[in-house]
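Chapter summary example.
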Amino acid sequence: MIPVAAGVRIWIASGHTDMRKGMNGLALLVQEGLARDPFAGDVFVFRGRAGSLIKALWHDGIGLSLYAKRLDRGRFVWPATVDGVVALSAAQMSYLLEAIDWRIPTMPADCKVKDRF
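The structure predicted for these 117 residues follows.
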């Protein structure tokens, strides 16, 4: 998990991205395609066409980092819009990284919650 400090904004680049891009290519995409500063300390998350790979770009004040996660099965939940960015909270980012629907988080059916009354 990316150690996201309080106040760091997380942005999902909607649509799909060419996953052959590395740090420099994604930073250029943030600058030109999303009209944002890739070195401002925000986290930018990109998803490939197949939906099983995401990359996160983050500048922590010291240097640029690139994180990647590939699912063995299933797809990452992604917004339906084609262009632009969607803001996420740190909790939603955690759901996203675990391949849980971050838009409508629900409790698993096999999880039992005891009543305290």
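To summarize the output: The first helix runs from residue 23 to 33.
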